[in-house]
């Protein structure tokens, strides 16, 4: 049972336009969400995170939106750049005192930004 | 920012041998480290959680006698794949979580670059 799902395995976008990546979760115990970017044969790089007490967090070109009632979050990248081409993973974890702070990852979305 | 290193970055070994992979947090103390493996075009699968000074907690289906984890200090955890077989060939990634107030946002895991293991 996948608790974190990224339903779009791939996304292609033109340079300069917005990239929108979506993520859905089923576990209502999740209260902290993260996005990671991963290049082939490298470890994931932390991008941005959001706590369940917020509905938006922005860091430069990256903005994460959280809709708790829908159990949905999204990552917006504006403007998209060719260097953003990578696989993006959504991850979630429950409250600190539970489950040892384990992260549950989605399946990833491969983003291709075309020049 | 928080930097995590892994060594080696890649290793090729014969079936039946053991391989040790090191994971180090370079600029912060990691009270908890995690070991993942990733098969091609798949997501990261958590294998075990390693806490400094105590036994690792393994995920369901992961053999603790085959994947030995040692977290002897606040900056180093090791994963030893014992009696490796071709099906153990994978990309192994570690991550480290600092104590509250250490490098980076609290509760964020920082990942190493990964180790590609190929068992012949």
Topology overview:
The complex is a heterodimer of chains A (115) and B (120).
Chain A: E1 4-5, E2 10-14, E3 19-25, E4 30-38, E5 45-51, E6 56-59, E7 62-67, E8 72-77, E9 86-94, E10 104-105, E11 109-114
Parallel strand pairs in A: 2-11
Antiparallel strand pairs in A: 1-3, 3-8, 4-5, 4-9, 6-7, 7-8, 9-10, 9-11
Chain B: E1 4-7, E2 10-13, E3 19-25, E4 30-38, E5 44-51, E6 57-58, E7 67-73, E8 76-81, E9 90-98, E10 109-111, E11 115-119
Parallel strand pairs in B: 2-11
Antiparallel strand pairs in B: 1-3, 3-8, 4-5, 4-9, 5-6, 7-8, 9-10, 9-11
Describe the fold and architecture:
The complex is a heterodimer of chains A (115) and B (120). Chain A is mainly beta and 115 residues long. Helix content of chain A is 0%, strand content 55%. In chain A, the strands form two sheets. In chain A, strands 2, 4, 5, 9, 10 and 11 form a six-stranded mixed β-sheet that branches. The termini of chain A are far apart. Chain B has 120 residues and is an all-beta fold. Chain B contains no helices and eleven strands. The termini of chain B are far apart. Chains A and B meet through strand 4, strand 5 and strand 10 of A and strand 5, strand 9 and strand 10 of B.
Based on the model shown, name its key terms.
heterodimer, A: 115 residues, mainly beta, 6-stranded mixed beta sheet, 5-stranded antiparallel beta sheet, 11 strands, 55% strand, B: 120 residues, 7-stranded mixed beta sheet, 4-stranded antiparallel beta sheet, 0% helix, 53% strand, globular
